[in-house]
Amino acid sequence: MNRIKLQSMLKDFFIEDIGDGDINSEFIFPPSQTGVLTFTAKQSGIFCGKMVIEDGFRILDSAIDAQVYVEDGAPLEKGQVLAEIRGAIVNLLAGERVVLNLIQRMSGIATTTHVAVRKTEGTRAKICDTRKTTPGLRMLEKFAVKSGGAFNHRRGLYDAVMLKDNHIAFAGSITKAVQKVKENVGHTVKIEVEIETKDQLREAIEANVDIIMFDNRTPEEIAAWLSLVPEHIITEASGGITLENIHDYAKTGIDWISLGFLTHSYQALDISAIVQNKSCKEAHS
Fold this sequence. Notes:
CATH architecture of the largest domain: Alpha-Beta Barrel
Shape: elongated
CATH topology of the largest domain: TIM Barrel
Radius of gyration: 23 Å
Strand order of the largest sheet: 6-11-10-9-8-7
Low-confidence stretches: 279-285
Mean pLDDT: 95
Strand content: 15-25%
Number of domains: 2
Distance between the termini: 28 Å
Oligomer: single chain
Order of helices and strands: HEEHEEEHEHEHHEHEHEHEHEE
Structural class: alpha/beta
Number of strands: 13
Number of helices: 10
């Protein structure tokens, strides 16, 4: 994860939430009053967001001491303390919501990803994400996928070619679309083509693409069609794949399974944030 980019994102998030100042806390707590903010897991799962905690609070106050006790990708148990942040209460409360929102979501993605990866054990299939991410949060969400034990697909429209049905329809055919791309991209850019029929599969093979995606095909169809694909072409399955049927897809012999739900249908992990001041009075936020 690009730490410079992360810090820039966090600054924007804080500006959105704090605006011209936190009128909830600044009128109550003097700048000199210090406390401890504790993050605790309220359910089991996989943690993600260590740098968010460390950098988030230090952006607000360089004197804050942020101690994170778990690493990205580590399992969490209900009741486990994830981190303790010590510093001025006004700054702890100003940063708490933004940081908590992010680590809950990132940990939720990591947890869902971990479950998906476990369901493919014993097969050759590897799990990856898609571009179905939250606008503005792609870097964080893809980092969470990696923390959960899976891999990242392309990061955007700029780092790999993926010819989908609309590209093919406008170009006229898979052959024409691939030919135009090969005339313009360099040798380091891979070309992936999405197919839905056996005729499209044969055309993609003839065009000598790097990756063929079987889109919205059943496990039975994929298992039957894979025998047509030369070994040097990477295969991928996507569309209609759930945690309930993912093992059926994995055991077909497919190389990769891309899952949109990792970043668009996950459930945030429940994590609490509690501030405790010197007199041990708790403030729930």
